[in-house]
User: Fold Diaminobutyrate--2-oxoglutarate transaminase from Sporosarcina soli.
Amino acid sequence: MVLTMERKAMEIFENHESQVRSYSRSFPTVFEKAKGYKMWDTTGKEYIDFFAGAGALNYGHNNEKVKKKIIEYIQEDGIAHSLDMGTVVRAKFLERFTEVILQPRNLNYKVMFPGPTGTNTVESALKIARKVTGRQTIISFTNAFHGMTLGSLSITGNSTVRQGAGVPLTNTVAMPYDTFMQDHHSIEYLERFLEDAGSGVDLPAAIILETVQGEGGINAASFEWLQAIEKLCHRYDMLLIIDDVQAGCGRTGTFFSFEPAGITPDIVCLSKSISGYGLPLAITLIKPEYDIWAPGEHNGTFRGNNMAILAATEVLSYWETDVFAKSVQEKSKMIKARMEKIVENYPELQATTRGRGFMQGIACGKGKETYGSEICAKAFEKGLIIETSGPDSEVVKFLGSLTIDEAGLDKGFDILEEAIQEVLNK
Amino acid sequence: MVLTMERKAMEIFENHESQVRSYSRSFPTVFEKAKGYKMWDTTGKEYIDFFAGAGALNYGHNNEKVKKKIIEYIQEDGIAHSLDMGTVVRAKFLERFTEVILQPRNLNYKVMFPGPTGTNTVESALKIARKVTGRQTIISFTNAFHGMTLGSLSITGNSTVRQGAGVPLTNTVAMPYDTFMQDHHSIEYLERFLEDAGSGVDLPAAIILETVQGEGGINAASFEWLQAIEKLCHRYDMLLIIDDVQAGCGRTGTFFSFEPAGITPDIVCLSKSISGYGLPLAITLIKPEYDIWAPGEHNGTFRGNNMAILAATEVLSYWETDVFAKSVQEKSKMIKARMEKIVENYPELQATTRGRGFMQGIACGKGKETYGSEICAKAFEKGLIIETSGPDSEVVKFLGSLTIDEAGLDKGFDILEEAIQEVLNK
Amino acid sequence: MVLTMERKAMEIFENHESQVRSYSRSFPTVFEKAKGYKMWDTTGKEYIDFFAGAGALNYGHNNEKVKKKIIEYIQEDGIAHSLDMGTVVRAKFLERFTEVILQPRNLNYKVMFPGPTGTNTVESALKIARKVTGRQTIISFTNAFHGMTLGSLSITGNSTVRQGAGVPLTNTVAMPYDTFMQDHHSIEYLERFLEDAGSGVDLPAAIILETVQGEGGINAASFEWLQAIEKLCHRYDMLLIIDDVQAGCGRTGTFFSFEPAGITPDIVCLSKSISGYGLPLAITLIKPEYDIWAPGEHNGTFRGNNMAILAATEVLSYWETDVFAKSVQEKSKMIKARMEKIVENYPELQATTRGRGFMQGIACGKGKETYGSEICAKAFEKGLIIETSGPDSEVVKFLGSLTIDEAGLDKGFDILEEAIQEVLNK
Amino acid sequence: MVLTMERKAMEIFENHESQVRSYSRSFPTVFEKAKGYKMWDTTGKEYIDFFAGAGALNYGHNNEKVKKKIIEYIQEDGIAHSLDMGTVVRAKFLERFTEVILQPRNLNYKVMFPGPTGTNTVESALKIARKVTGRQTIISFTNAFHGMTLGSLSITGNSTVRQGAGVPLTNTVAMPYDTFMQDHHSIEYLERFLEDAGSGVDLPAAIILETVQGEGGINAASFEWLQAIEKLCHRYDMLLIIDDVQAGCGRTGTFFSFEPAGITPDIVCLSKSISGYGLPLAITLIKPEYDIWAPGEHNGTFRGNNMAILAATEVLSYWETDVFAKSVQEKSKMIKARMEKIVENYPELQATTRGRGFMQGIACGKGKETYGSEICAKAFEKGLIIETSGPDSEVVKFLGSLTIDEAGLDKGFDILEEAIQEVLNK
Assistant:
C-alpha cells in the first residue's frame, strides 16, 4: 500500500509537473520526513543527507531550537508576511546580526532584504554596484553560478542555462577563475585587461565572485588570489561583491567564507542557510557609503518573510562563541581525509580532491567524467543523498549539514565507497 | 516601556537596514501581531488592513485552518525544504490543484515551481516563451509591473525602478494598455505594429499582461480587449502570458482573473496568495505542448518550499464550491458602492473609480495626484493600512483580504472617508 | 558581339559577385554610359532614369559643370584623399556651404565629416545625441530607413533587413509615423508615452525622422506633425535629428526638406546628393552647443574625400538664387498631376498618390500590392528605370534627378502608363 | 598673401567644422597638392608622407596610371554612381580580381560590395557570420580596431571610442591578441574558454582579427598564432574573419597579409587601398558556401562607386607578376634596419621595433610613451608626415606608400632621426 502511494506520487509528478524538474530525477523517490542529517521516504527508507538542500540546511533538517521558536510564533499569530514594514522580528534580527556577526568581525554593513532568493540578492548587488559607479560592465568568473534571473544568469558560466535565457546575455565579462588555467596566471591576465586602455573590456562597475564555486565544480580560490582581486578592485575603483550564498553561513568553517583571506568586500550576498530552516530568505550587505538606494528602488513581495527572519535570528546563537566554527573546522579535516583516501584507493577514477570546509569534492579525471553521475546514482540506491558538480558533472560533491556528527559522516562516506566500488566493478 | 521598544526598533531600522526600505516609511510603526483583517503594533494599536501584504494575504492574516496544518506539519518534522525533490506535500498539491482548480475550468497546464517569488515565475515564463518560439521580443504594456530582476524589470513600466537597473532594458516593447489612451484604440495600434512588416517592432515571442494592473494604477482591461489580445496572439503565433501574480487567486472574484473574459492563456504566472499564508511560493502554468524545458534549465534553491506548498494545498478548499467566489463578488459590489459614493461626496478630488473585485481604486484627477499619498498617510494615523498605486501615486488602492467581513469593510471605509475629509479641510 | 559582352558580364556577376546584389536583379542589364537623366547599356539601349541613383544624383548623371572641375582637379594633382587633414578644398566647401546654405536660412551648425555614407552620418548623430544627453534610447518611426550598420539598423523599420543583423537591435523605440494610423493620432500616442512615467519608454536622447520616408513608402509627414514633434523635443529636452539623406539637397523643392515646416533640427544628416556627382560623401550638421566631440571620437578613413567635397562645393551654385528651387517646385506639380491622372485612369490599382517634390509615389491599394513590382519590371523593359518602395513594394516611386526637363518627365511617365496598361491587360 | 590663405582656412576649420576633427590638429597646415610620396601645403612647403592616408594610398598620391584612366572615364561620361546595378566597370573588376588575385592564390571567394568604407565591410562580415552560424557572439582581440559604426565598434578595443557609443557594446568578447601577454599564452586562454562549457563565453559565430594591428600599436601576430587560431575555428565550427582593411592590398609585402601564414579565412574584409587612388571602396570576400545573403539584405547607396572600382581594376596590374611584391619586401628590410638602428642609437626611448612589411613601428618603452607624440609633432615641423599608434600613442608608426623609393625612405627616416634628437635634447 505504501508502495502504491509512492508510485501514484511519481505518476503525479510525471503527469502534472513540468519537465523542468531535476532533483526528483536524480533522487527518484518521495520524501516524507527529515531530521538532522537524515531523510525518510514514504516507504520508510532512511537516507544519509550529504546534500543539505543544496546548502540551505547548514543547521540540519528541522533543527529543534528553531522549530520550537517557529511553532510558538505561529501559535501566537506573529506577523507572517509584512513586505518591508517594521516588525519586532525584523528589528531583533537586525540587532542580533549586527552584534553577533558584524561587530566581532569589524564589519560595517547595512542590511538589505531584497526578496527571499539567492538570485534576488545577486540582482540587487549588481544594481547598486552599477548605480554607485555609473558603469555597466560586471566582471564574473569562469564556472560561476549566481542565479537564474536575467541579471544573475548573465554572470553565470554554464552554457546550458545561459542558452535558456533565449536572449543574449550582456554587460558582463567572464574572466578566468583562480583554478581555471593550470598555470594559475589568471590575475596577470585580468590585470592586463584592466590596465590596457585598448583591451576592449570597459572599466567594470564591480567584480563578483564565489570564494568556493559550489555549482561550478567545488573550485576553491586561494587566499592570495582573493587578496589580489581585492587589490585590483581598489586600484581600479571597482566594487568587490562576494556571492556567499552557498559558501557563506559557516559552510567553509567561518561565518563568511572570505574571513580567512582577510578581505572586506563592498557587498556580500547571503541566502540559502541564512534562515537556517530551509525557509526562503536572502540579505544583501552593503557598505554604508554605497547604500544609495532610493526607497523601493528594488523591492519584492516576499522580502519580509518573518518566519524565516525569526529562524535566521535563532541560528545566530551558533555564532556567539567560536565553538561551533571550530567543530566545523575539525570535521572538515575528517572529510578531507576520507576524500583523499578515496582518491588514493580508486586510482581508476584519476581523481583529485577539491574545496574547503563542508564544501569539498572528488573530481574525476579527464575522460572519467561520467563516473561522477554514476557514483551518485549508485550511492542514492544505497541510502546516500549526494550530488555532482562541475561543467561535466565530474565532481562528487559533499555538502552535508554542518551539524552532522562523526558517525553520520562515517556512515555516509562508507556508503560512498561502496558505491564507487560497485561502479568500478561493473 | 513599549514606546521605548518602538523607538528602539525604529532606530535599528534607520541604523542597520538599507535605505531601500519603503513600506516601513509609509506605515511608520512596528507590527507585532496579526489576525484576519487586523494588525497590531507593539503599542497595542489596532489597524484595519486594506493592503493584505500587497495581495499576498487573500485569506487573511494567520488563517486558522492553514495555521493548524502548518503547526502539525512542523511538529511531525515534515520536509521543510527539498528543492524539487519528490515529497508527499508536493504530490498532494499537484493532485489537488489539478482537481480543484484546473479540471473544473477545463484548463490543462503543467505546473512548474520556478522559485518562490513573482519575479521568478515571470522570468521563467519569458524564458519558455522565447525557447518555444525562437524569438526574442516580448510585448508588455504601459504601466505594467512584473518584477525587479532584470528580465521582469525589462517589461515593467515604471521609470524609477527601470532606471535602477543601471543598464539598458532590452528585447521588449511597451504597447498601450487598454486604458492608456482615452480613445481606447490600443488594439488597432498594436495590430498595425504587428501587421506592417516595416513597423520596426520585430515579431514577438509573447505578449504578457496583467488583466488588472495592481501597481500601475488599478487599471482593469475590458473583457473585449483581452479577447482581442488573445486573437492577435493566435493570428501572429505569439504566446499569451497572463501575469496573475496579484490579480489571481480569487482577487477579482474568480480564481483566475481572466476567467470571465473567456480566454485561455498559454502561460499563467501565480505567486503572492497562491500559498495563502504569506509564505513565499510561485508557480508557472504552462500548456503541455509548450513544456519543452530541459531538466534544471530554470532552477532555484527555494523552489520547493514545502510549508508554503502545504498551505497552498489547504487554501484550495475555498475553491471546492462557488460559495467563496460568490461572497467575494458580493462584497466587491459593496466596495464599488462605497468608492463611488466617496467620488461623489468629494468632488474636490476630481476622482474616478477603477478596477474590479477586491482590486479597486479611487483615482484622484489631473492636478490632484498628491491627494493620494496624503489620504493614505492620514488613514494610517487613524488605523487603516491602505496604499497608493499608479505612476504618480494618484490612486488610493483597496487590496483587502478576501475573507474580510462587511463590518471590516465598513469600518475601513469609514476611516478612509474621515481621512479624506481631514485632508481636504487642511 | 555586344550581346556577348552583356551576357558575359551577367555571368561574371552570377559567378563572382555575392548573392546580396539587388538592383542588378531589378534592372537586369549592364550599363555603360550616362548623362543627365539618361543611361545607356552596352547594347546601346537608352533608358530614362526616374531613380537617380536612389537619390544620389539630384543634379543628373555626370553634370557638366562638376565634371569639368573634377577633371581639372585631378589633372593638377589636387589632394584626392586626406582623412580630415586641412585641405584647400575642404576649407572652400565649409566657407561656401555656410554662405550659400546656412546663413540665408538663419541656420547655425558645425559641419562634421563622419565618413562618406548615409549610415555613417546617422551613426554619428546617434552618438552625439547620446553623449549630449547621457541617455540611451532613440525614438524612430515606423517604416523608417536609416542605414545598414548596427546603430542605424536599430532605428530602421524593415523586418527583413533588421533580421539580417543576427543580434537583437536595442536601445530604440519605434513610434507611429504621421501616416501610420488612419486616424493620424500618432502625436497623441507619442505624447502619452513620454508624459506617463510608467509607460515603459525610457526618456529618449533624441527623436530621429525623415520628413518624407523614401524607402518606407514615400510617406510624407505633414508640417503640423513635424512642428508637433519639434515641440515635444523641446518639452522633454530631447534632440531632434532630421535624417535628410534622401529628402535633403533639394529633393522636396527646398534645400532642406524641413524648411517649409519652419522647424530647426538640432542635428541634420546629409549624404547621397550632397556631393552631386554620385561621389561618396556625408556630412552631419550639429548645433554648436552640442558639438562636444572629443577629437577623433568618431572617425573613418574616407571622411575626407576631396573629389567629392570639390563636387559638393560646385553644386552649391544651384542654390545661390531661388531659381533652381522654384523650377523644382514647378516640375513637382507636373509630377503630381501625372500621378493623379494615373490613379484616376487605372482604378483597378486602387491606388493613391503620396509624397512631395521630386519624391512622389503611386501606392497600389490593399490586395493590389504586387502590381508595384510588376509595373516597374515592365517599365524597365520599355526603357524606364523606376523603383518600388514600401513594406510590400507596393509603391511605384518617382525619384528622378532635379535637373530633368519636362520632355524627360513626359517621356518617362508615358512609358510608365504603357507599362501599367500592359500589366493590367495581362 | 599665401600665408593669409592658410590662416583664413585654419579659421574656417575652427569656426565651421566640428570639434571631432583630429588629423588637422596633428598636422596643422592646409594641403593643396600631392604626388607619389610627397605633399605640399598652400605655402609651398613640401612634406615626405610616411602616413599614406592611413594606409589608403598604397600606390602613392595621384598615381599616374590610375589618374589617366579616371580622367578618360569621366570624360567619356562613364557611369559614376550605380549602386549595385550591373556596369561594365563592375564586371571587369570582378573578372580581373578573380584572375589576378584569387585564382593564383587558390582562393575561391564571392565578392560583395558592402558600401565604400572599412566599417561597412566589417559590419557585413559580422552579419553574414551570424546568419551562417545562427550564433551571436563574435570574438575579437585586445587593441583591435575595426571601425566606428555600432557593430564594428563593439569589436574595437580602444576605450575612448568605445565610450563614444553612448550605449553598451554587446554580443562580443575580447580575447588576448598574440602579443598581449608577455608569456604569449593567449591561445591556451582562448582554448580553455572555448572548451569549458561553463566558461561563460558562449560559442561564437566567428573570430575576427587583424594580422597586424594598425591602430592598436603595430602588433604583428606570429604565423604560428594565426595557424592556431584557424585550427580553433575549424575545431569549434566558428568562421574566421580577417580584417585586412589596413594590412591587406600589399602592405605587409603580399597582397593579403595572411598569405605567408598559409591560412584561408572564411571571410576577408578589404578597403582603404583596394581602390588605390584614395577613392572610397570596400569589398567583402566570402567563401561561396557562406554566401547565403538574401538580395539587398545588406545594402548602401555608395556600394557601386564606379570610379573607385575602375581605379581598383587598374592597380591590379601591380599584382600580375611578383616584381612589385618583391620590391616591397626588399624595401621592408630597409625600413626594419633603419628602425632598429634608431632603437639602438636612442636608448633613452627604451624602444623596441614592431610589425612587418610597410607596417612597422618604434614602440617607446614603459614610462616613455609620451615621446611618441612629441617625435611625430617635431617630425611634422621638419617636413615629415608620420603618425602614432597604440593605446597610449606610444608607437611611431611607418605607413608610407608601397611605391616610395629608397631616396624617399632615406629622406624620411633622416628627418625622423633629427626629430628624435631634438626631442631628446629638449
Summary: Chain A has two domains: 5-62+323-424, 78-319. Residues 28 and 392 of chain A are 21 Å apart (CA to CA). The mean pLDDT of chain A is 97. The radius of gyration of chain A is 21 Å.
